[in-house]
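2024-03-11 09:14:02 INFO receiving multi-entity request
2024-03-11 09:14:02 INFO entity count = four
2024-03-11 09:14:03 INFO echoing inputs for audit
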Amino acid sequence: MRKSKPGPDEPGGRRGYHHGNLSEALVQAALDLIAKYGPAGFSFAEVTRAVGVSPAAPYRHFRDRDALMADIARRGFDKFAAALSAAWQDGQPAPLPAFKAVGQAYLAFARSEPAYFAAMFEARLPPDTSRELAQATERAFAILRQACEALIAGLPDSKRPPALMMSLHVWAMAHGIAALFGRGDGARRNVPMTPEDLLEANMLIYLDGLGLGDGGG
Amino acid sequence: MRKSKPGPDEPGGRRGYHHGNLSEALVQAALDLIAKYGPAGFSFAEVTRAVGVSPAAPYRHFRDRDALMADIARRGFDKFAAALSAAWQDGQPAPLPAFKAVGQAYLAFARSEPAYFAAMFEARLPPDTSRELAQATERAFAILRQACEALIAGLPDSKRPPALMMSLHVWAMAHGIAALFGRGDGARRNVPMTPEDLLEANMLIYLDGLGLGDGGG
DNA sequence: TGTACATCAGTGAACGCGCGTTCACTGATGTAC
DNA sequence: TGTACATCAGTGAACGCGCGTTCACTGATGTAC
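2024-03-11 09:21:47 INFO inference complete, emitting structure
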């Protein structure tokens, strides 16, 4: 029922009904702290101080710290799915460039939303934390799979790799590069290539290996 | 100077000089806690209780919690380098199977040493934490690079990819699969392939793309 | 339109707890003579 | 071999602090009539 109430029309503005949109404000404050100190770097109490409410206030919205974290991760996967989907553009103008754009969108998300990324992948939330989180994760992965299926469609039947396997590979390559080299925070390693170039090359070589290279596809 | 003192000959045994090998014991206790609760899941105080010493004892060995964590990560990279090196076997009996073994060793390490793996990659230690840590990381990566160089050597000059780029790709692929699907703790995702099979296939397709496939190499 | 009431978001004080860190100390060990 | 001394790993008590969580409460809002 919580979700059925309309939010404030002006983003960030108060509506005058007590705090207005406390749960939203708590999420934003937690994101700021995660961006600065990592997913373990904030406390429930610290978040209430940042928002300017009493330490008991969040209990009206979240059972505990983990529930807040899970909600942040869920929102993160929703935004992530939207970003990947926007890059994919239903495979327009052509599957290959659209596919590359999805990979770049993965890195762009990790860099521009390090707090969401950390909540999604580094918060060590148990897999059964919430249905909403699992479903949001699934929706994001579905975009990758969709892009892989469209690319595979260009191959003759006998040379088609399993779409699930290919999408897991793509996820792993993008995630590996994002996790090791592409995070927005200071943990970046010193390598003489941008994560973007590194991933682009990795994808091209992989696609070549599948027979989907520029020449062969 | 701390390191010049000989450790106990019997592993885990006390030597009778006060605790004996407290810093070792602190590291082991911290590893147990990290394995259970993640890299943020232990406190200095908790570690002293597990070992059975006073809360002030660790200060003789580690400046603070972060210094202990950095030492654990450094030890982890040393063990990791040793594991990769043992799998590589100087490229014997042949570069390709030895190379595959390195990838499998990456996954085996992530699974069998989740606490070290978490300290190495998920503890968010600042990159300038310690020289020893940076050097140990470099030594582990050097094994990957060495394996890539040996494989590349089988290609004609004009078709050789840059060894650094290739080793970063290999690192990213192995790390992506380990991080998403191959950790020893409960965070595993439900996919219908083992991480080992997934990585093996990913590497083969990538090597095919480089012209290093079974047929072409 | 006006009033009485139900709802429930947020208050603020309180609690017990574990934390990191300090300090002067103790006592086992190693060694100089 | 024996003694006196220096070293330093570990003690244990103490501190102030921020934490999560509870509770009866208050007061703004929405609504029934």
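2024-03-11 09:21:48 INFO post-check: The two ends of chain B are 50 Å apart (CA to CA).
2024-03-11 09:21:48 INFO post-check: Residues 22-60 of chain B form one domain.
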